[in-house]
Request: fold
Amino acid sequence: MTGNPPERKDSPFAGTATGLAPLAGWSDPPFRLLCFEYGADFAVTEMVSADGLIRGGEKTARLIERLPGEGPVGVQLFGSDPAVFAEAAAIVTRTGPAFIDLNFGCPVKKVIKRNGGAAIMRDIDMMGRICEAVVSVSTVPVTAKIRSGWSPDEENFVEAGRTAENAGITAVTLHPRYRTQGFAGEADWTHIARLREALSIDVVASGDVWGADDYLKIVEITGCGTVMIGRGAFGNPWIFSEIKAVLEGRPWTGPGLAEKTGAMIRLARMEVEWKGERRAVVEMRKQYRWFLSGLPDVKDYRMRLSTAESIAEATEIVCELREDMDKRWTGTA
Ligand SMILES: Cc1cc2nc3c(=O)[nH]c(=O)nc-3n(C[C@H](O)[C@H](O)[C@H](O)COP(=O)(O)O)c2cc1C
Reply:
């Protein structure tokens, strides 16, 4: 690493915080807004190409925007070149995010092939240079997100965490799987505990939190105060309220049917406003699937929602489902 480490900013995750993880194709402003409404303390954008940002790509620039009403949002950057990262970070910094997060964990081939994401776990010196370059230009805290390593034979999350810490990074999130695992197998929370022992900066836990029980377990095992939730929020932004309720000793009953279907309809409307009807129609399909998971006898509705051609049609199907289930549950069908 070069010269003196840049100055580290305070962690953006003071105290106990639970937030929405960076999720490509998911953590856009409308979905984030829904998660904030239901109690998320912070959220992270989907990963944003540092290259794309500095080339002025319109689509990429859209990814760093936020909606009024959102809570603290971190912008996540991916790339492979420290100078490009720094230039992109300077652009992001001017938009005033809560923090900038650096992606060192993406397992996707397209990203790896260009030496980005988890490929950087194999070049720790490069990781240090990227962290330093971004910390030196950023006016907001800089965090990093890593995996356990490339493979079990190349496990190096402690080395990676120390490198980030020495480069002025404020907090490190560990998703404790190897790149070679993708999302298979269980997240090994003991890795997060080991990283927390090894570092003096904040360590954020990520991986396999699907409800308040998992939350309590991951906190107990890792000792982390901050937890990021990814897939557990799919179709279930209430996971944040559930965790809050448990932390405050309040009983938790979960959303009723009216609230669930209401959230689906609201999200669809926000998505239309955000990205236009055509994209919203296609991208809402995966959302509907998740929102309906766990509801009994909804196969027919799921199928119809997966082929709906407009948000108006999808909304009608959701309303029909609500009425149908209401009748079934009150025994009037
Ligand atoms: C669809 C999907 C997209 C993801 N996109 C990103 C991303 O853009 N940046 C990132 O650092 N991690 C990304 N991840 C990883 C998550 O942030 C998280 O670390 C991982 O899914 C484990 O947490 P979970 O079990 O709560 O989902 C993604 C995961 C999924 C399933």
